[in-house]
Design goal:
The chain is of the alpha+beta class. The chain folds into three domains: 2-209, no CATH class; 228-318, no CATH class; 330-392, no CATH class. The chain has helices spanning 20-29, 33-42, 47-53, 91-95, 126-138, 206-209, 251-265, 271-285, 292-308, 330-361, 369-373, 382-387, 389-392; strands at 2-6, 14-19, 58-60, 63-65, 74-77, 80-85, 100-105, 112-119, 155-156, 164-165, 172-173, 183-188, 191-196, 228-237, 246-247, 286-287, 316-322. Strands 6, 7, 8, 10 and 11 form a five-stranded mixed beta sheet that branches. The protein has a four-stranded antiparallel beta sheet with strand order 2-1-3-9. The protein has a two-stranded antiparallel ribbon with strand order 4-5. The radius of gyration is 28 Å and the shape is elongated. The chain starts with a strand and ends with a helix. Mean pLDDT is 84; it is low at 178-212.
Length: 394
């Protein structure tokens, strides 16, 4: 787990060799904080940004070197492959990928850098392993920066106090196959499996390996190209959420609720997939983290109820669904919720009053407003009945 550190992007001579974990602490602790924040102030794409970036120290995540950053001076591989995500990526995908050891915000504050832990990595299988990891992320519509498929690649030491680290990650197994051989990676807690779909004897359909990425929020299948959709009777929903830090005494409650949300939104999830996600969330959010056997017991209990069809998900009803492809501000959403909620309440009130009116009409020739007000099911006062009388008595 040794890496080389350099003065900056322009200088190929190493300053020192250090551990990956120490570099992670540099990123977390603000070793380059002043320069990184200054670069972010100007923004990616500006001359000032590029000038400042070239002054920031770098490291080679994939390997360490003896003198210069070149293959002839290669000392050893670090056991990691550096991954570069040029744009914003769903953090749940990164944290749900069992082989991700760490990820952090890039200097630009737009994309992410990440480290994939790999077993059996060598010079000969580095490229094919990188291709396999890229294939894994392709399943989520994500393409890695191919310029980083280079053992000597250096990365600017950025600043991210919230850097994610999972020292209990499950390593990716290095792939010793030709680079042009299409492969798909499937992870599990028990290890990894590689499927070669060029082999006619393979009985596994690649579409079955990635039926759907995990869903963390209940949404609609079709928004009909509208900004939002109203479901008058409501639709059951559960959304995954955990506080940034969960203290003792609160851990079981929050983790159990998160398990329910995952199961509600992912009916066909496997127990291994669920356990992997929950172990990651436990390490990131619980202070201190629950023991592995405690997490396993929670997952086992709820998953068995889920499979048997006897689990109460405690879902709530939601009537207003915003189209995730439409960008609305918080104020705009609140205004829409206020307006549409008012409409729904009025419609419900009128519907109840109309039902009372029809019931009274069966035994009375003439139904008055006061008769409706005195009915045991009347939800409002006389002034409201008067306001909607034309619609009630229609």
């Amino acid at each position: 787990m040794i890496t080389s550190i350099f003065k900056n992007l322009k200088n190929p001579f190493i300053v020192q060799n250090n551990t990956i974990d120490n570099v992670i602490e540099m990123i977390r602790g603000g070793y380059t904080k002043k320069l990184v924040q200054l670069a972010r102030l100007f923004g990616k794409g500006t001359e000032e940004y590029e000038d400042i970036k070239e002054q920031i120290p770098t490291f080679t995540p994939n390997a360490s070197f003896s003198v210069k950053r070149c293959m002839k001076d290669l000392q050893s591989l670090s056991g990691f492959i550096y991954l570069d995500f040029d744009s914003e990526v769903d953090q749940d995908i990164l944290e749900g990928s069992s082989f991700i050891y760490a990820y952090w915000k890039s200097v630009s504050n737009i994309g992410y850098g990440a480290l994939a832990k790999v077993n059996g990595l060598s010079k000969d299988n580095f490229n094919s392993t990188w291709n396999s990891i890229n294939s894994y992320f392709n399943q989520f519509g994500i393409c890695l920066d191919s310029h980083c498929k280079d053992i000597t690649r250096q990365n600017v030491i950025t600043y991210d106090p919230d850097i994610y680290v999972n020292k209990n990650c499950c390593p990716f197994e290095a792939i010793d196959v030709p680079e042009n051989n299409p492969i798909i990676y499937q992870s599990s807690l028990s290890g990894t499996s590689i499927y070669d779909f060029t082999n006619d004897t393979c009985s596994v359909d690649p579409s079955e390996l990635y039926q759907n990425r995990l869903v963390y929020k209940t949404t609609l299948n079709d928004y009909q190209k509208l900004d939002y959709v109203i479901i008058k009777d409501g639709k059951e929903v559960r959304n995954c959420f955990l506080p940034k830090e969960i203290i003792m005494g609160e851990r079981h409650k929050w983790i159990a609720g998160y398990i329910l949300s995952i199961l509600f939104n992912n009916k066909n999830i496997t127990k291994d997939q669920l356990l992997k996600v929950i172990l990651n969330r436990n390490l990131k959010h619980c202070k201190p983290a629950l023991l592995h056997n405690e997490v396993n017991s929670l997952v086992e209990w709820y998953y068995n109820l889920h499979i048997n069809g006897s689990l109460n998900y405690n879902a709530r009803l939601q009537k207003i669904f915003f189209n995730p492809e439409i960008k609305l501000s918080l104020c705009e959403r609140r205004a829409i919720i206020g307006k549409e909620s008012g409409k729904l309440r009025r419609e419900k009130t009128i519907s109840v009053l109309k039902s009372i009116y029809e019931e009274l009409k069966l035994s009375n020739q003439r139904v008055t407003q006061k008769m409706i007000e005195k009915h045991e099911l009347c939800p409002c006062k006389l002034r409201t009945i008067k306001k909607y009388w034309s619609q009630i008595s229609d």
